[in-house]
């Protein structure tokens, strides 16, 4: 029994160290997107139907260029009991922009995420009840409305038929796969799961390639400039 508790204590220490280290990195690293600008562009894109996502994608590309996915593909998406469609606008390890559309009215849980998210309703309406709310007050967000989902916060959502929501988040994104992956696999929807994962990983690759190229060009420019200055001084 003493050995069991000793091992458990070590696991707790390791978990706490990993959690603290991840929090430190997330707090101090740089990010590509501005939540304020994302919110502004999303509010301007509000309208009717799924076409609002194409408008937002176009506006985001004008600002962020290749950081926005080249190929925008909708996938079936099940999560927290909700039946949705999802489209990856940007995929990364610590940032994401994903649009969700409800073909039919659906209700479910937001899940618990190691990330902070800001979401804007592009079309339709969304209702939310927080698990930690001390009353039965229901928040309602119409087109153009914005709501935040903080780290490890869980809420119950009801999404109106044909509504569209887009979310930008920062955090340890792989942890969020626990929200959707099991339900999609157990539901036998392997094709949609694979399509969504492929879209996300492809967007991540495109973003990393862009960042790597920018870093290379910066280092090359700085290095060559230094070399030229040294040659001139000699």
Automatic annotation (TrEMBL):
Annotated InterPro entries: ERG2_sigma1_rcpt-like (IPR006716)
Compartment(s): Endoplasmic reticulum membrane; Nucleus inner membrane; Nucleus outer membrane
Record Pfam families: ERG2_Sigma1R (PF04622)
Keywords: Endoplasmic reticulum, Membrane, Transmembrane, Transmembrane helix
GO cellular component assignments: endoplasmic reticulum; endoplasmic reticulum membrane; nuclear inner membrane; nuclear outer membrane
Keyword Transmembrane: yes
Family membership noted in the UniProt record: Belongs to the ERG2 family.
PANTHER family from the UniProt entry: SIGMA 1-TYPE OPIOID RECEPTOR-RELATED (PTHR10868), SIGMA NON-OPIOID INTRACELLULAR RECEPTOR 1 (PTHR10868:SF1)
Protein name: Sigma non-opioid intracellular receptor 1
Taxonomic source organism: Pristionchus pacificus (Parasitic nematode worm)
Gene name as annotated: WBGene00112365
């Amino acid at each position: 029994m003493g050995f069991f508790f000793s091992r458990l204590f070590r696991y707790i220490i390791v978990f706490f160290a990993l959690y603290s280290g991840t929090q430190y990195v997330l707090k101090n690293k740089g990010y590509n997107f501005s939540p304020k600008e994302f919110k502004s562009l999303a509010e301007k894109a509000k309208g009717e139907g799924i076409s609002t996502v194409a408008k937002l994608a176009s506006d985001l590309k004008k600002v962020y260029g290749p950081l926005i996915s080249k190929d925008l593909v909708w996938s079936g998406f099940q999560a927290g009991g909700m039946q949705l469609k999802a489209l990856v606008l940007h995929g990364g390890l610590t940032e994401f922009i994903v649009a969700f559309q409800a073909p039919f009215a659906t209700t479910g849980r937001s899940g618990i995420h190691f990330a902070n998210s800001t979401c804007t309703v592009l079309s339709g309406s969304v209702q939310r009840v927080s698990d930690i709310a001390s009353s039965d007050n229901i928040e309602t967000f119409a087109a153009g409305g914005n709501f935040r989902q903080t780290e490890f916060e869980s809420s119950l959502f009801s999404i109106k038929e044909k509504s569209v929501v887009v979310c930008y988040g920062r955090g340890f994104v792989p942890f969020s796969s626990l929200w959707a992956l099991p339900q999609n696999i157990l539901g036998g929807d392997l094709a949609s799961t694979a399509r969504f994962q492929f879209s996300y990983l492809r967007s991540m690759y495109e973003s990393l390639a862009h960042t790597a190229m920018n870093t290379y060009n910066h280092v090359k420019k700085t290095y060559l400039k230094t070399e030229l200055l040294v040659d001139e001084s000699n």
